Predict the 3D structure of the following.
Amino acid sequence: MTLRLSKNIKLIASDFDGVFTDGSLYLDEDLKQVKKINFSDVMGVSRLLKAGYKFAIISGETSNILNYFRNKFNIEEIHGGIRQKGIVLGEIMKKYSLSSNEVLYIGDDVNDLAAFECVEYKIAPKNANPILKLREDIQITQNSGGHGAFREVVDELLNL
């Protein structure tokens, strides 16, 4: 299945946990959190930025992994600890003078619904919360979060 995307898209905004990760949280004996990310998704970020797209991460969690992305790719729009994702996405869109048909949002759970309402292009990974999968306006990737879902979206977008 091919995602319905547009050459008009200028910004890809994404949740982090459940998109770049499989949603698992690993805890060691000292309760240190560890998350696994898929390198093909990291390469997707690189390809996206090299192609001239704007990129934002809007996460409900705070994590040093978000700082890794900020520093590795010099990404300005990294937002962690966000409870009102729709408000933050709206502010980013206003900052760059983008309309809803120029933005794609990727999220995996109900806390992404407000962000989805801001954009025309709504995508969730294959393993997203079932509530998202019931909505006809949200496209579902063939890959799961943490298993190349983000890269799938980037590859489709770059092949338009």
Q: What stands out?
A: The mean pLDDT is 95. Residues 93 and 120 are 13 Å apart (CA to CA).
